Amino acid sequence: MRWLLAKDVRILARSRLLLVVLVVYPAAIALLIGFAISRTPSRPRVAIVDETPPGATVAIGSKVVSVHRYAEQLFSQVQAVDVRTRAQALAKVNAAEVLAAVVIPPDIVAKATSGTTQGRLEVVYNGNALEQSLVQAQLSSALAQANLGFSQQIQQAASSAISQLLHGGNASELGAPGYLIGLDQIPPLLARVISHQPRGPDRAALERVAAFADFAATNLNVSRSVLASVGQPVSVSTRLLHGRRTPLDTFAVVVAVSISEMFVCLLLAAGGLALEREEHTLARLVRGLVARETVLAEKAFVAAGCAFAVAFALLAGVGAFVALDWARVWLWLIALAASSLAFGALGVAIGALAREVRASSLLAFLLSLPLAFLALVPSGAVASGLSDVISAISYVFPFKSALQALDAAVNRSAPAIGGSLVHLAVLVLAFGALARVSLRSAD
Amino acid sequence: MSVPAAAEETSAGTLSVRGVSKRYGELVALRDVSFELCAGEVLAIVGPNGAGKTTLLSIVAGTQSATAGSVHANGAAEASRSARAQRAAVGWAPQQAALYSRLTVAENLRLFARLERVADPERAVERMLDQTELRARADDRVGRLSGGNRQRVNVALALLADPPVLALDEPSASLDPAQRERLWEFIKGLARSGHSVIFSSHNMAEVQRHADRVIVLDRGEQLFDGAPAELMRTAGDGDRSEIGQRDLESALVAFVARSEREQGIGE
Question: What ipTM describes this predicted complex?
Fold first, then answer.
C-alpha cells in the first residue's frame, strides 16, 4: 500500500490547483467564519421621526417619564437616522437609504395616559424578503424592550404612589396638603379613639370605619405585587437536560469544519478511485498486484488524511477568533480522524458506483449539500413523519454523527462522543463493503 | 465445456487455453475456445467487432475470469500454482494504455516494478527504458506523450517482470505507420528471444506480416486456428472469386461470411 500512497501523494502534489485549493480553502473559510462570528452584527439603518413636542413627559403619580428617553431606548437597537417629517422618512425608505422608518406620533403621550387607548407607533419598511425579515425582527425586539422599560418605569411610579397612600408621608406631589397619614396607620389610631368611646351608635360607626381601613390597607399592599406581575407576567427559567450549553458561535465553527471536511474527503476519495478507472490503471492494479480492498483502503486513507489536515487547520484557524478549549485537542483529533475515515469510506463507495471522475464529483457534491442540510434541521421544526425520514437518512450517512462527535469534542455537548464514534466505525465498515461490492466488476 | 484445472494435463507450451467460455447473463461472449501457444510464437486473434477478442485476451491476462474452462501460462498445470503466479506469467498491455498520466514514464515503470515485486526495480526500469527506446522521454509526464509513445510505455509495463507470455490488445491501433513498424520490430525481437505473443488486431496486413498463427473468432465461436496462409487457402476453397484478391483481409471477410452462411446466421 505504501507505493500506492506515495504515488497518490505525488499526483496530488502535482495537481497544483487542487493543492492550492486544499491550502487556501481552510485558511479562507477560517478567516471568513472568524470575522463573521467575532464581529457584532451591523444594526439596520432606520429613520426616526419624533413628532412629540420637545420635553413631552408622561406623569404617573409623583413620577415623570420622559418620552424622549423612551425613544432613546428604541434608537439604541438600530442605527437611527433622525428626520424631521414623516414625508422625509418615507422618501428615505423609498430611496432605500434606510430599511425602515419609525414615526412617533404627537398624540402618543395623550393616548398613553388616557387609560382607555394605547400609544401607537407607525413602522414603514421596504426591501427584499430577507431585509424585511431582518427589520421586522430587530424592530419588534427593540419595541418590546423599550415597552418593557417604559412599563417598568410606570409600574415603579404607581408602586411609589401606592406606598405613599399606604404608609403616609409628604404627598404634596400627589396633590395632598402637607404630611398625609398612611392607610395602615388609621386602624390603630381609630382603635385608641374607639376605646374611649361609650357603647352606642357613634362607636359602632367608628368600628365599621376602622374595619374598612384595615381591609383597604391589606389589599392595597397586595396590589403592589400585582402591579409587578402585570408589568412582566411571565419570567423564564431555563435548564439544559444533557451536556453543556453550546455557544452558537462555536457550534457554527463545528458545522463549518464538518461541512468542509465532508466536501474535501468525498471529492478526493470518489475522484481518486474514479480516476484509477478512467486511466484504466485499476484493472492493471487488481490483476494480482494489489487486492481491491487495499486499493479502496488506500484511497480512503489518502482522502481522509487530506480532509483531516484541512479540518484541523480550519479549526485551529478559527480558534484565533473564538475561544476554544485546547485542553480537549486530543478529543478533536479523535473526532476528526473517525469522521474523516467515515467520509473516506463513503467517498470510495461513490467513486466505485459512479466510475467516472466527473460523475463521481457531481454525485459527491449533490450528496453533500442535502446531507448537511438534513442533519441541521431541528427535530421539532418539521412534521413528525418527515422528521423520522430525515433522522433515518441522517443515520445512514456519516455527516450527522461526524457533527455530533466534533460538537461533543469541542463543546462538550450531548450526546457523548463515544456513541458517535461507534456509529462512524459502523458506517466505515458499511460503506467499505458497499464500495467493495461495487468494485467487484472493475476491469 | 468446462474442465477443472486440477484434473487436466497441460501439454508443452507457454500458454494453454482449454474449453474457455464466458457468459454475461444471457449473452455468450466466448464458447469453448481452446488453443496452445508455443515459446517464441506470435498468435493473432482476429474477427469482427464483438467477436470476443478482448474478452479472450482479458481472460488470458487474468483481468476477467472464465465462466468455464482454464488458462495455464508457461506450462503450469499444478493446482498449487497461485493465481498471482499465473498472472505474473502473462504480461498484459490493454487496448487503452493503463498509465498514470500525471506521473513520468520512469515513475510509472518504477511504481509497477515495485508492485510486481521485481527483484531489482531500478534495473528493470533501466532495461525497459532502453528496450523501448524511451530513455529520452523518461522524465516526461505520460499525459504529454504522443499516442505511440504511450503505447510503448503500455507495452513496457507489460514486460517489466519479464513474463514468458505477452498479451497485447490491439497494440498498434493508435499508431502511425512508422511507430507501428518500430513497435513490431520490438515485439518480433521479444518473440525471437523466446517470449510468446498473443495479440488482437483489426489490421490484417500486420497480422499477415507478423503473426505465425491466426485464430478467427466470430460471435464467441472459434472458427479457425492455423497459419495466415492456411486461412487464405481455407477461405479460397469455398469461393474462388474472392480468393482471387489474395490478401488476408479479403480471406477473413470471405471466411467469416461463409461460416455464418453455413450456420444459417444473417440469412
Answer: 0.78
